[in-house]
Amino acid sequence: MEKEVQQSEAINQNKIKKQNKTMNIIVKVIKVILATCLYSAGVALFLDPNNLAPGGVTGVSVLLNRLIGIETGTLILVLNIPLLLIAWKKFGFKFVLGTLSALCLITVFTNVLQRFEPITDDLFLAAIAGGICIAVGLGTVLKCGLTTGGTDIVVRLLRIKKPHLKTGFLFLMVDLIV
What we know:
By secondary structure, the protein is mainly α. The protein has helices at 2-47, 56-68, 72-91, 93-113, 123-143, 151-161, 167-177.
């Protein structure tokens, strides 16, 4: 009898663990969707329409948008393809799949949100609000264990070579180069 009770408790504990794991995945997916939307809003509603380019691949995409006319979100995805191939080799398929999912969301959200009017035409306000949106969105995606591609991948690669350097410093240096 006691053995049956223990088995029943073990089964219940396994069910609870599976439910918790499923709930954690759902929460993580929702966080990533909201974070990539916020990141894209920073680009599409504040920075890009005011001709402000953030650092990294997103900034290069904003600049190229002016030169060749392809949507900024699409350029973000296209410019990340070589970095994704390098990341696949260095970090594996699971890492690239997570990054690609975030990148696809950013591409779609950025392209959709660009169809709306910018929230402000004040350059200072656009720079501050856009920067905050991108920072919070990026930070949330990173906290969920994913990346948004671009300089995130470059920084991870640099951290392998220079583990003593802080991640924030590496982001700053890479973005300054851009």
